[in-house]
Amino acid sequence: MANVTTRSLLEMKEKGERIVALTCYDALFARLLDASGIDILLVGDSLNQVLAGASSTLSASLEQMIYHTTIVRRGTERAMVICDMPFLSYQISPDDALRNCGRAMKETGCQAVKIEGGQPMATTVRRLVDAGIPVMGHIGLTPQSVHALGGYHVQGRDDATADRLRADAKALEDAGAFAVVLELLPAPLSSQITKSLTIPTIGIGAGPACDGQVLVLHDMLGLNEQFSAKFVKKYAALAEDVREAARLFAAEVREGRYPGPEHSFGK
Ligand code: KIV
Predict the structure, then answer these.
(1) Any alpha helices (H) in the chain, and if so which ranges?
(2) Which residue of 29, 40, 42 sits with most ligand 1 atoms within 8 Å of its CB, as the best mutation to test the pocket?
(3) What are 159-182's pLDDT values in tens digits?
(4) Could you please report the per-residue DSSP string of 4-25?
(5) Are 79 and 40 in contact (CB under 8 A)?
(6) Active-site positions?
(7) Tell me, what's the pLDDT at 226?
(8) Distance, CA 252 to ligand 1 centroid (Å)?
(9) Fewer CB within 10 Å, N or C, the chain?
(10) Over 80: is that where the pLDDT of 1 sits?
(11) How far is the CA of 1 from the centre of ligand 1 (A)?
């Protein structure tokens, strides 16, 4: 059982301790992030873009999410592992959502699921929570609705949308969600929402007042050069390190300098 639980996350909010989350898609990175004390490993459907090279998250499948969540769990001891439910795996009906989220919980060993949407998802969240499935909500820029939203833009800049987002957050809390991701919201709006809820908010591009922060791992490591955004701080420049290592390997192989005697077997 992971040390980080829905209960401990709530306690962190109460004590004012910040929650740290990163996306994670495999066991190797899971081991590294878990050992670094990251609280939540979110197996985001962003893997469809970051790993699989798709232009959006829409074509991610439940099988893909189950596979990656299973391997992340293998590398994790302390952190909470959350499976991001893909497009159309939970929107059709609460029954369908229960079937698919239940499958994700049973087959992967994850501790929670994440679904996108506010008030229209409240009945589904309640159904899942009543069945014993912890649910993280996700409002603001919800990438599975990118076409309906007209692109990847900051949400809640006008009063009507800001009011709706406040109501969305409250509806998710009332339905039993244990946390909510706020994506691409103006910082003052995230701050208001964070103060109005008893459950933690986890921000991405939503300013500093959220109870926690999440970033896409490959973006913050500087590995994914296909994507850049104002809110992404790069904590490393691994893409260049990878290119440099590959160039060095190629040069050494071509020049006959690798493998040397220390990398070869005598008998
Ligand atoms: O899919 C994902 O990686 C996400 C995070 C960006 C919150 O939903």
Answers:
(1) 6-15, 27-35, 47-50, 62-74, 94-108, 122-130, 146-149, 159-175, 187-196, 217-220, 238-254
(2) 42
(3) 999 999 999 999 999 999 999 999
(4) --HHHHHHHHHHTPPEEEEE--
(5) yes
(6) 183
(7) 86
(8) 39
(9) C
(10) no
(11) 24
